C-alpha cells in the first residue's frame, strides 16, 4: 500500500514554484438564466426580417384605417337585413333535462296521503343533500 501511495504522490524531480489561487477552474456551473428564453424558436435571418416588415405594415395607421373601412362597408351592406336571433338547441340547465317519472297518477300521493305534492320523491344521499337525477335542488 505504501508503494502505491508513493507512486501517486511522487515528488517532481525538479522543483517548480507552486501557484496557489492565481487561477480557478470551475468543473460545474449552473445554467445561466439568460441561456433559456421562453418562446418560439428563432427564425432564420431572412424570415425574421420579413416577419418584422410585415408586423410594421400591419401595425401602421394605414392598415388600421383600411380594416375599419372594410368593417364599415360590410355593416352598411348588412344593415338592410335584420339580424336573426341565434337558435339555441341546448336544454342544459333547464328542468326539462331532469326527465322525472311520476311515482303515481292523480293529485293525492297514495303512500303519504299528501295532496298537490311532488309526483316523485328526490333521492336523499346524505342528511342535507336532496337531488333529482344528480342535480342538487336544495343548498
UniProtKB/TrEMBL annotation:
Originating species: Candida albicans (strain WO-1) (Yeast)
Top-rank taxon: Eukaryota
Region (Disordered): 103-130
Family the entry assigns: Belongs to the SDHAF4 family.
Basic and acidic residues bias: start-end ranges: 112-130
One Pfam family recorded for the sequence: DUF1674
GO CC annotation, single: mitochondrion
Single GO biological process annotation from the record: mitochondrial respiratory chain complex II assembly
Name recorded for this polypeptide: Succinate dehydrogenase assembly factor 4, mitochondrial
Amino acid at each position: 500500500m505504501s508503494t502505491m501511495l508513493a507512486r501517486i504522490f511522487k515528488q517532481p524531480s525538479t522543483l517548480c514554484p507552486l501557484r496557489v489561487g492565481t487561477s480557478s477552474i470551475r468543473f460545474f456551473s449552473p445554467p445561466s438564466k439568460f441561456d433559456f428564453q421562453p418562446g418560439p424558436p428563432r427564425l432564420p435571418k431572412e424570415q425574421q426580417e420579413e416577419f418584422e416588415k410585415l408586423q410594421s405594415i400591419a401595425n401602421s395607421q394605414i392598415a388600421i384605417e383600411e380594416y375599419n373601412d372594410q368593417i364599415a362597408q360590410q355593416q352598411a351592406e348588412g344593415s338592410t337585413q335584420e339580424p336573426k336571433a341565434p337558435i339555441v338547441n341546448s336544454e342544459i340547465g333547464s328542468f326539462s333535462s331532469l326527465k322525472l317519472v311520476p311515482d303515481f297518477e292523480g293529485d293525492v300521493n297514495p303512500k303519504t296521503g299528501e295532496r298537490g305534492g311532488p309526483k316523485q320523491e328526490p333521492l336523499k344521499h346524505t342528511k342535507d343533500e336532496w337531488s333529482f337525477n344528480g342535480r342538487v335542488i336544495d343548498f
